[in-house]
Amino acid sequence: MRLRPTPRGWALAAAGVVALQIGVVLGAVDLVRIGTLALLLVVGAAVAVGLLDPGRGKHRLSVQRRTTPNPVHAGEEAQIEVVIAATDPAARVRLAGLKFAEQAATELSGGRPLRARVARAPRQVTVTYTVQAARRGRWPLGPLVVTRSDPFGVVRTSATLGEQAEVSVWPAVVPLPSPSDVLVGEPDRVAIGARTPSTDDASLRDYREGDDLRRVHWTSSARRGALMVRSDERAGMRPVSMLLDLPARAASLEWSISLAASMSLAMLDGGHPVRFVSGSPDGARPYPLGYVHDRSGPGARSAVLDRTIDLEAPRTAAQGEAELVSAAHLLHSTDAGGEIVLAVLGPLGAPARAALAHVADNALAWAAVRADTPAQEAQAEHTIKALRRAGWRACRVTAGEPIVSCWLRLLGSAQ
């Protein structure tokens, strides 16, 4: 709690001190009484306001904050509702006369004061306002700042109420057309969801990440002590790994993540298990996250988008390339036969091109190669040619262009 006199309080206290001193010097009892009364008024107001601190004591106020929706996509609005309630009749005294101000990160407020609607009821006050999510990430909201002054306006106190909340912001995404047969492989007809039973549904194999748990053969699994699945290879959808080469420039970073997220959701909507493979949040090493399945229900899309919130640009270009090389080695070393690898890349150096070349040995590999500046166009074309020689399908994209155009160009790169 912060307690301080208002300008009126300072003036009254100064006048009281002056009157008290003059009264003592001149022996004027009335002036002494007036000066003493003025000082007592300021001190008494401070004590009274301090005793009614809304954030402390047995009768403190409670604060509940709701954000709708949360998470929210970048560029969209979210409505915040803050309910300040008196926990008992005695706390109603602390609720009366309070003024409220909310704190929010610049990424939510745009650096402007938040304009709120305040609705008062006998035992609670509801503050409602709207924020604009400017950028992907996790941004703080609150705590609530409350101010109160005494009836004479000589002392003002300010305090914080409630805990700090967090608003999660997903990247902006664009609905993309369903993946075509050429992207996921005509032999399996997985793009249109064909699930033709195999001729020998009784043959078994070891469980692999991305397999449908409904195809687990529990009797054989119990006998062998390891999960076994029926080897109907065409019964499921090809798993998809999304590989991200994160650029250092903020504008290119957010656009690249939006492109990757949109592509991932398009594949998920097509029935494919999807995972992200990219640099870890602390920049230490790449990591593969588990697959998200469309059969997980409404939470599947949220699970995919949640994995993009904490992605950060590498500190240096060398670090970014090292993470990409490590991620490529991980994809090549794991059992990814028949997997689809979608990549959003920047212009690559020789080590990264060599590492990515092996990914296409046992996977269907597709890449959108970004040219952030005109000076990078030649290097981006060199990267595309190297990837195509290794068996990738690749096309050049420009940061900031429509995501749908990039997707259609990538699908057309096989022609």
UniProtKB/TrEMBL annotation:
<feature type="transmembrane region" description="Helical">
    <location>
        <begin position="37"/>
        <end position="55"/>
    </location>
</feature>
<keyword id="KW-1133">Transmembrane helix</keyword>
<dbReference type="Pfam" id="PF01882">
    <property type="entry name" value="DUF58"/>
</dbReference>
<keyword id="KW-0472">Membrane</keyword>
<dbReference type="InterPro" id="IPR002881">
    <property type="entry name" value="DUF58"/>
</dbReference>
<feature type="domain" description="DUF58">
    <location>
        <begin position="204"/>
        <end position="248"/>
    </location>
</feature>
<protein>
    <submittedName>
        <fullName>DUF58 domain-containing protein</fullName>
    </submittedName>
</protein>
<keyword id="KW-0812">Transmembrane</keyword>
